[in-house]
Amino acid sequence: xxxxxxxxxxxxxxxxxxxxxxxxxxxxxxxxxxxxxxxxxxxxxxxxxxxxxxxxxxxxxxxxxxxxxxxxxxxxxxxxxxxxxxxxxxxxxxxxxxxxxxxxxxxxxxxxxxxxxxxxxxxxxxxxxxxxxxxxxxxxxxxxxxxxxxxxxxxxxxxxxxxxxxxxxxxxxxxxxxxx
Length: 180
What we know:
Layout: H1 17-24, H2 32-35, E1 37-40, E2 43-46, H3 47-50, E3 51-55, E4 60-65, H4 71-80, E5 85-90, E6 93-98, H5 104-137, H6 145-179
Antiparallel strand pairs: 1-2, 3-4, 4-6, 5-6
Helix pairs in contact: 1-5, 5-6
């Protein structure tokens, strides 16, 4: 009787995709403008609904405001948000730059966020180990105790190997972020 412990299928992304996503957040994400709302036409509207959002670099976006009467309202909304935007008016367009993307504090925040994502991954890994051990124990009626112990040990070895890879990844990405 052969028992096989399956690993989840690997995605097309690299193993470091979660940490890389954190690192890439230094870019000005266009989704931010979906969350910011301005008072327009008697109700709250998303900034992305009243202006065309066009990226112009890592930390710069141009907002082409559809209605020129909303330019001052959008400017006020962006400047008072907690996203640390610098806004320059260019006619109907607003040039929005995110400040503080490369400061020590911003890098430390990215590292903290990356570590919290890695803790989440480690917790999911522990849950997977626990499920695998439970699956192995279901076969107690059919296979000997020695074989069960062997498979439990194999599951533990896989867990330790992946956990070590995760620790290495954290250290590498932390150095990469702090030196960028």
